[in-house]
Design a protein that fits this description.
Layout lengths: L1 E6 L2 H12 L7 E5 L6 H11 L14 E4 L5 E5 L6 H6 L2 H4 L4 E5 L13 E7 L6 E6 L4
Parallel strand pairs: 2-5, 2-6, 4-5
Antiparallel strand pairs: 1-7, 3-4, 6-7
Length: 141
């Protein structure tokens, strides 16, 4: 399945997150790709809200992973500073696989370590100012 959302406002971005959240069961790995400032953390915030997470959702840049409480465990990773297998191992990434929903920013840095069935969400600047193109790709339908 591949679907692209053109979001021109925060409300449209929240609606896109709600639509994607409807397919999440709680054990997926969702890999986020996109340039700095494209809205990865903002989209994850909307996605978590749509899933019923009430915790404050912030970028885990320095902590590497934030854990949120919701209907199932949610683990929010930031792989921006990961520069190889040793750095990836130090995040505990492998220990989290299968234990909840993994939301991974800067997945470009660990693409070879993503499970084959990982969902991919690409965020890009749209053609108009303050517009984002958000594309979901799911290998498993």
């Amino acid at each position: 399945m591949k679907k692209t959302f053109i979001c021109r406002s925060p409300d449209e971005t929240a609606r896109a997150a709600q639509e994607i959240a409807a397919f999440i069961r709680g054990r997926e790995v969702i890999a986020f790709f996109g340039p700095l400032g494209a809205g990865k953390t903002t989209f994850i915030r909307y996605l978590c809200r749509a899933l019923g997470v009430e915790d404050e959702v912030t970028s885990p840049t320095f902590a590497m992973v934030h854990e949120y409480n919701g209907p199932f465990p949610v683990y929010h990773f930031d792989m921006y500073r990961v520069d190889g297998p040793d750095a990836l191992f130090s995040t505990g990434y492998e220990d989290y696989l299968g234990s909840g929903l993994l939301l991974i920013e800067w997945s470009e840095h660990i693409e070879e370590a993503l499970p084959p069935d990982a969902w991919r969400i690409y965020l890009a600047y749209g053609p108009e100012e303050n517009t984002r193109e958000i594309t979901l790709e799911r290998a498993n339908g």
